[in-house]
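Q&A FORM
Asked by: J.P.
Topic: structure of Transcription termination/antitermination protein NusG

PROVIDED:
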Amino acid sequence: MLSDQPAWYVIHSKPKCEHLAAAMMLGLPEVQTYCPRIRFQRNTRRGKVWFLEALFPSYFFARFVPAQSLRAVRHSQNVIRIVDFGDQMVSVSDRVIQLIREEMDGQDIKEVQVDMKVGDTVELTEGPMRGLKGIVNSIHSGQDRVKILLEFLGRESLVEVNASKLLTEQTARQTLAGS
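REPLIED BY: S.T.
REPLY: Here is the structure written out as tokens.
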């Protein structure tokens, strides 16, 4: 028997379609959605690029009364399924949703800074040493200049480069988890 009480459920969506599925579902009567996303800048081989991703890739939350809206939610555009355990839908407590909203500072999209720190492995993205990897030795004048230890032609050398020319292996998710 389906519950006649509203509750939050985890919705599995098609990849990279979480926000689209959540937006489409908002058009359904008596259905709320929550799709937290992170926005971050990453150095790539073509320079700094902004990325926008779901906090939980391929998943978002929907609050609805299963007895009234289950069929509409299940068959909503870009939805794969409602997450269940042993064919039993399991709700997410309001407290968990509240904690996620607090971690997101009350925003649907939170900007995350991916900072470089001493000891990080980085890759040069520009210049004659492009593609070489090194280890951050020190950071100078904010985040503008970085000294990295490079192994080049059989010896280690300290090289000072502009931080914008480095690709870090740290991800925005690791940064968010560490906050």
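FOLLOW-UP: Residues 7-112 form a domain with the Alpha-Beta Plaits fold (CATH 3.30.70.940).
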